[in-house]
Amino acid sequence: SSLKNAQKRLQKTLKLPESDVMTEDSDTEGNAEATLVKEIFATDPLIPDAVYFCSIEPPSLATQNAMEAALKQLQREDPSLRVNYDSVTGQTVLGGMGELHMDIVKSRILTEYKIDVDLGPLQIAYKETIEEPALDSFQVEKEIAGSKQSVTITLELLREQNELFSLDKSGENASNLNSLRPRMLHVIRKGALSALERGPRVGGQVVDTQIRLHSITIGRGTADSFVMAAVAQCVQKILTTVGTRLLEPVMALEIVAPSERISAIIADLSRRRATINDVRPKSEHNKVIYVNAPLAELSGYSSVLRSISSGTAGMTMQPCGFSNMNSNDEVRAIQKAQGFE
Question: Which of 1, 172, 196, 230 satisfies CB 3.0 to 4.6 Å to 206 for a cystine?
Fold first, then answer.
């Protein structure tokens, strides 16, 4: 394949033994250079975050497995489609780029897999981030089938955009953390990061937040699954205590319209919390407006634009990140997400 040929070319460039090149069928750990080869070929394409989500339900329990298989195949073909299981609601949740995207997914499942799924209401995919750093210690104990399960842990949440999980090996923490086996570190990390998938305010993914482990004591005979759940529970408690704020998806728009319509379009955009970045001539009679606007303010905007411009304007729109919200907009977003608006 082209991947294997590229691996061979890189192997020659780095002068690595063939056995050190990591391939999909290889179990060899290799050395640092071999790991580099694997990492180079493991990079993922840049896929924008989902800006909308909705639940998806099969018409019957009998078609649940078939629906899940269909979604897996669609994800392989369309990496921008996100599929998650919400353990709180017990629902399968789709994430995507908009209403049209979700409609296409539903249509394909019906036409290609003969499953007439139901989609829940489309909701904006807000994210959450912590207000300030916080550190706390917890002890979680429980007896399961006559076996005592025990975890004592000290964790800290920090504002950080790069690393999601780190170890504080300063001072007296060093001996505690150095005694952890790699397998147990993996269990702890997995539990910690799972807690960031659902924030305390609207259930949005928690971002720009690092979990720092200071120390952990695990009782003899404690199951990995209990450790993972205990770590996740501790992170969730800190998130609830310290509080999070919402980040809303923002769209970049390019609007082309006749020059005489520009003022009316900009006036409408200003009422939608938009930021006008630039207005440039497009042709003798047209101009283009470059603008960023919150997704929450753009529901039905294409129809509004047609009305304002009497059908003479056109636009393109794509996600361009997430931004902070003021307190009033945040309250409205939470009320809407909770079904009170």
Answer: 196
